[in-house]
C-alpha cells in the first residue's frame, strides 16, 4: 500500500509547530556562550566562561547535587508506591480500582500551586518545611502518577495466563511477583522512574512554597538568579539541564525499543 | 517419573456468573492413570470445569475430590497439578531450561537435583539441545513440548491440558497427538484434557465426557460414544451422522421398527418407545452400502444422487430420498461399485444395528 503523503499545508504547519517548540530552547545555546557579562547573544566571539563559572561555583554545584539527591529519593518513593498501586489495581480489577487509579492521577490534574499551598499548611505541623525529606516526599508523591501510568500500561500488555501458570506450578504471590510479573513490567517501571526523576529534577512551584534556605534546588537557584541579576550562567545551567533531560528521554526510548524489539 | 496417577472426582459441580450458568451440576470421576477428555463446542463449559479443577475458578456449588480428599477450597498453588495452557504461557523472559526449572525453583530444590530433573524432562520431550533458547526462538510444536516438560517436571498429581494442540497446524497436531498418547502410556499419570476437536478426543482419550451448554450430556469410552450415542447432539458432534425420524410402528424382541411415509426402518435396541410415538435414529454415513440390483438388506431406501465429492480415500454422496430427505453416505473409493454421477438412481442398505435410536435433544 502507498503511504498517504501529507499536503503542503499540513507539512508547513507541522514545521511551524516544531520550530515553535524548539526555538526558545535552542536560543539559550548561543546565549550560554556569550562573551558579554549579561544575558545576551554573543557579540564578538564565543566563550565558555559561563560554563566555567557554573562548574566552579560551590553554590551552583551544591544546588545541582542537592537536586540530584532529592530526585533520586523522590524517584524511589514514586516507583515503590506507584508500582505497588498499579499492580494492586490490576490484580483486583474492579470499579473501585478504576477510582483508585483516577485518584492517583490527581497530582498532575490539579494545579501544582494549589497543591503547594496545601502542602505548606500540612508540612508546617510535621516540621517538614525547608527539609530535604520534605521536598523529597512532596516530589515523590507528585511523581506517583507517572509511574502508575507507565506500569499500568505495561501490565495491560501482560498475559494473565503467565501469572496463572506460575501459581499453578506452586509459586506464592511474592515468588510470582519477583520472578514473573516484575521482570515482565521492568521496562514500564523504568520509564516511570525516568519521568518521576525528571519531574522532581525541574520542579519549582512546590519548592518555592515549602523550602527557603536550607533546601535550595537547581530550579530554585535559576529562579533566584533570573530575579536578582541576568547572569548568563543561568543559560549555561539551562543548557546543561536540557542535555541531561534529553539524555534521560533518549535512554527511555532506547529501553522501549529494546522491549518492543 | 513412574509414580501412579491420582484419582479425581467432581461432585455436582456448578458455576454461575450472575444469571448465566457456565457449568450445571456436573459429576465426573477420573480414575488413576486415566486420560479423560472434556469435549464440547465453545461455550459448553469445558474450560470452566478445567479451571475449577486447577483452582483458578471457584465453583458456585459442588465439590472436587483428589483421592477422596476435598480440595475445593485449596488455592491453585497448593494443588500440585501440572497444567499446559492454551497458547502455552511460557515465560518469555526465561530460557527453555529456566522455564522448565521454574516449578523446581519454587520448591527450593538443590541446584544439582534441579538440573538433573530439567535434563530428564527435556529428554522426555526430545528437546535436550534447546535448553538455552528463548521460547520465541522455538516453533509452535517445540513450545508446546516445553510447556509439557514444564508441567511434568515436578511430578504433579494430575496433568491438565487446555486445548494443548489447537494452535498447531493439522499435520503437526497429528504428530503431537501420537506423542502425547505415548507420553501418557509411558508415565502413567492422570491426564485431563479439554478440546473442541472430536478427532483429538477420540484418538487420545480413555474416556470422553461430552458437554453442551454447561451440562454433561454423555461420558464413556470413545468407541461407546461413537457407536452408541445417546442423544442427537452427541451423534452430531462426534463424527457425522444422518438422522431418520418417524413413528414407532412395531416393537419386537431386541428392537423396534419406525415408519416414515412408505419406508420402514428396523433398529436394534434393548428397550423401545411406545407404539405410535415419534422416534429418531442416528445412522453413520460409513455404515451404509450401495445395494446391487436385487440385493437384500435389513433396511433399504431408494434415492438419486443429488451431489457427490471425491475425498481421496473415499467418495461422499448426498442421496435424495423421498421419506428421509438427503442422506449422506461415504464409500471407500478403491472398490466403489459405481462411478458416481448426479441424478444416478441408487439403493442404500444397512443393518438394524447401524441405525441407533437417539434422544432428540436439539429439537
From TrEMBL, chain A:
InterPro entries reported in the protein's UniProt record: MetI-like
Residues annotated as transmembrane: 12-33, 64-90, 102-123, 135-158, 179-198, 233-251
Topological category with respect to the lipid bilayer: Multi-pass membrane protein
Source taxon at top rank: Bacteria
Statement: the UniProt record of this protein carries the keyword Chloroplast: no
Keywords (A to Z) from UniProt: Cell inner membrane, Cell membrane, Membrane, Transmembrane, Transmembrane helix, Transport
Cross-referenced PROSITE patterns: ABC_TM1
Major subcellular site: membrane
Cellular location(s): Cell inner membrane; Cell membrane
Chain ranges of the ABC transmembrane type-1 domain: 64-252
Family according to the record: Belongs to the binding-protein-dependent transport system permease family.
Protein's name in the database: ABC transporter permease
TrEMBL record, chain B:
GO molecular function, one term: ATP binding
Domain ABC transporter: 8-238
Highest rank taxon of the organism: Bacteria
Catalytic activity: ATP + H2O + polyamine-[polyamine-binding protein]Side 1 = ADP + phosphate + polyamineSide 2 + [polyamine-binding protein]Side 1
EC number: 7.6.2.11
InterPro entries linked to this entry: AAA+_ATPase, ABC_SmlMolc_Importer, ABC_transporter-like_ATP-bd, ABC_transporter-like_CS, PotA-like, Transp-assoc_OB_typ2
Pfam families: ABC_tran (PF00005), TOBE_2 (PF08402)
Protein's UniProt keywords contain Transmembrane: no
Role played: Part of the ABC transporter complex PotABCD involved in spermidine/putrescine import. Responsible for energy coupling to the transport system.
Sequence similarity: Belongs to the ABC transporter superfamily. Spermidine/putrescine importer (TC 3.A.1.11.1) family.
Oligomeric form and interacting partners: The complex is composed of two ATP-binding proteins (PotA), two transmembrane proteins (PotB and PotC) and a solute-binding protein (PotD).
Protein name: Spermidine/putrescine import ATP-binding protein PotA
Organism listed in the record: Falsiroseomonas tokyonensis
Biological classification of the source: Bacteria, Pseudomonadati, Pseudomonadota, Alphaproteobacteria, Acetobacterales
Amino acid at each position: 500500500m502507498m503511504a498517504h503523503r501529507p499536503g503542503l499545508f499540513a507539512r508547513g504547519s507541522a514545521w511551524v509547530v516544531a520550530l515553535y517548540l524548539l526555538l526558545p530552547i535552542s536560543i539559550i545555546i548561543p546565549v550560554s556562550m556569550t562573551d558579554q557579562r549579561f544575558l545576551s547573544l554573543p557579540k564578538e566571539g564565543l566563550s565558555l566562561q559561563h560554563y566555567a563559572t557554573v562548574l566552579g561555583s560551590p553554590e551552583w554545584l551544591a544546588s545541582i547535587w542537592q537536586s540530584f539527591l532529592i530526585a533520586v529519593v523522590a524517584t524511589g518513593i514514586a516507583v515503590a508506591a506507584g508500582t505497588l498501586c498499579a499492580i494492586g489495581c490490576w490484580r483486583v480489577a474492579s470499579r473501585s480500582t478504576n477510582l483508585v487509579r483516577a485518584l492517583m492521577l490527581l497530582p498532575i490534574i490539579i494545579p501544582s500551586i494549589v497543591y503547594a499551598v496545601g502542602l505548606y499548611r500540612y508540612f508546617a505541623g510535621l516540621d517538614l518545611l525547608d527539609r530535604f525529606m520534605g521536598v523529597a516526599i512532596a516530589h515523590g508523591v507528585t511523581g506517583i502518577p507517572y509511574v502508575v501510568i507507565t506500569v499500568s500500561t505495561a501490565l495491560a500488555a501482560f498475559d494473565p495466563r503467565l501469572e496463572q501458570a506460575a501459581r499453578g506450578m506452586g509459586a506464592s504471590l511474592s515468588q510470582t511477583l519477583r520472578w514473573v510479573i516484575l521482570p515482565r513490567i521492568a521496562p514500564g517501571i523504568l520509564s516511570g522512574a525516568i519521568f518521576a526523576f525528571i519531574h522532581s529534577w525541574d520542579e519549582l512551584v512546590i519548592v518555592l512554597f515549602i523550602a527557603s534556605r536550607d533546601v535550595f534546588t537547581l530550579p530554585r537557584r535559576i529562579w533566584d538568579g533570573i530575579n536578582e541579576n541576568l547572569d548568563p550562567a543561568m543559560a549555561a545551567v539551562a543548557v546543561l539541564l536540557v542535555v541531561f533531560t534529553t539524555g534521560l528521554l533518549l535512554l527511555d526510548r532506547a529501553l522501549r525499543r529494546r522491549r518492543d524489539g | 517419573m513412574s509414580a501412579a496417577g491420582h484419582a479425581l472426582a467432581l461432585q455436582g459441580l456448578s458455576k454461575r456468573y450472575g444469571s448465566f450458568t457456565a457449568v450445571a451440576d456436573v459429576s465426573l470421576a477420573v480414575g488413576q492413570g486415566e486420560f479423560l477428555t472434556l469435549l464440547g463446542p465453545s461455550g459448553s463449559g469445558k474450560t470452566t470445569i478445567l479451571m475449577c479443577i486447577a483452582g483458578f475458578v471457584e465453583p458456585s456449588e459442588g465439590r472436587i475430590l483428589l483421592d477422596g480428599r476435598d480440595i475445593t477450597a485449596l488455592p491453585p498453588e497448593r494443588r500440585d497439578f501440572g497444567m499446559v495452557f492454551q497458547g502455552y504461557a511460557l515465560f518469555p523472559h526465561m530460557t527453555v531450561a529456566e522455564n522448565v526449572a521454574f516449578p523446581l525453583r519454587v520448591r527450593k530444590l538443590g541446584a544439582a537435583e534441579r538440573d538433573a530433573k530439567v535434563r530428564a524432562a527435556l529428554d522426555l520431550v526430545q528437546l535436550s539441545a534447546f535448553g538455552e533458547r528463548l521460547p520465541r526462538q522455538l516453533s509452535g510444536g517445540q513450545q508446546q513440548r516445553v510447556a509439557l516438560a514444564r508441567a511434568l517436571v515436578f511430578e504433579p498429581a494430575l496433568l491438565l491440558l487446555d486445548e494443548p494442540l489447537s494452535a498447531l497446524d493439522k499435520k503437526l497436531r497429528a504428530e503431537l497427538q501420537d506423542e502425547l498418547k505415548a507420553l501418557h502410556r509411558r508415565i502413567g499419570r492422570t491426564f485431563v484434557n479439554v478440546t473442541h476437536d472430536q478427532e483429538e478426543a477420540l484418538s487420545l482419550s480413555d474416556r470422553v465426557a461430552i458437554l453442551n451448554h454447561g451440562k454433561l450430556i454423555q461420558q464413556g469410552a470413545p468407541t461407546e460414544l461413537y457407536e452408541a450415542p445417546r442423544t442427537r447432539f452427541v451423534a452430531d458432534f462426534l463424527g457425522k451422522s444422518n438422522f431418520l425420524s418417524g413413528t414407532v410402528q412395531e416393537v419386537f424382541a431386541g428392537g423396534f421398527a419406525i415408519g416414515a411415509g412408505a419406508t420402514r426402518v428396523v433398529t436394534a435396541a434393548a428397550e423401545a418407545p411406545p407404539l405410535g410415538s415419534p422416534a429418531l435414529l442416528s445412522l453413520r454415513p460409513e455404515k451404509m452400502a450401495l445395494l446391487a440390483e436385487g440385493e437384500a438388506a435389513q433396511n433399504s431406501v431408494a434415492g438419486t444422487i443429488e451431489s457427490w465429492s471425491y475425498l481421496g480415500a473415499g467418495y461422499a454422496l448426498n442421496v435424495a430420498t423421498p421419506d428421509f430427505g438427503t442422506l449422506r453416505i461415504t464409500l471407500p473409493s478403491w472398490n466403489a461399485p459405481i462411478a458416481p454421477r448426479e441424478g444416478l438412481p441408487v439403493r442404500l442398505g444397512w443393518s438394524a444395528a447401524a441405525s441407533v435410536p437417539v434422544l432428540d435433544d436439539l429439537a
